[in-house]
Amino acid sequence: MIENEITGIIVREAVHIHKSIGPGMLESVYVNCLLFRLKKKGLCVRKEVAVPLIFEEVKIDCGYRADLLVEEKVVIEVKSVDLIAPVHLAQTLTYIRLLHLKVGLLLNFNSILMKDGIRRVVNNL
User: Fold this and answer.
1) For 84, which DSSP code?
2) Which residues are CB-neighbours of 99 under 8 A, at least 6 positions away?
3) What is the DSSP letter of 113?
4) Mean pLDDT of successive 10-residue segments in the chain (125 residues)?
5) Which CATH class is domain 3-122?
6) Please, where are the H alpha helices in 22-72?
7) From CA 49, how far away is CA 32, in angstroms rounded?
8) How far is CA 120 from each of CA 41, 61, 63, rounded to the nearest angstrom?
9) Per-residue pLDDT tens digits for 109-123
10) Beta strands of the chain (E only): which ranges?
11) What is the pLDDT of residues 22-32, one digit of tens each?
12) Which residues pair with 106 in a beta bridge?
């Protein structure tokens, strides 16, 4: 499955979750709901994935954790904040770069409309 297909499924499931429970919950609620829905769709999903830094050929655990990694191809960072800040986009970009991936999704479930809380982040490898 290619990244565009995976991100399409993720977006549809995020919209479904948002319509079902609405904004205002903790991030962990949305992460767990998304984990459940994506696994139900048959996707391979890992939660709280360590994102190491390789420095001078040494793997360094910096404490970075991606909320979800889908099919080993797409990082999902979940937020429940008033507004997406540049630091949130930078965090997602950092994760996809360190994992050598092409794309990540930043999902802010605290948006009134879920479509306004979706940001696709691309790593120009």
Assistant:
1) -
2) 51, 66, 69, 75
3) S
4) 96 98 97 98 97 87 93 98 95 96 98 96 87
5) alpha beta
6) 27-40
7) 14
8) 21, 26, 23
9) 999 999 999 999 999
10) 45-50, 53-55, 58-60, 65-70, 74-79, 103-108, 118-122
11) 999 999 999 99
12) 77, 119
Is residue 74 packed enough to be buried (19+ CB in 10 Å), middle (13-18) or exposed (0-12)?
A: buried
DSSP 8-state code for residue 23: S
Q: CA 20, 102, 27, 118 torsion: positive or negative?
A: negative
What pLDDT sits at residue 125? 64
DSSP state of 72: T
Residue ranges per structural domain of the chain: 3-122
Which residue type sits at 5?
Answer: E
Report residue 16 as tokens.
Answer: 């479904």
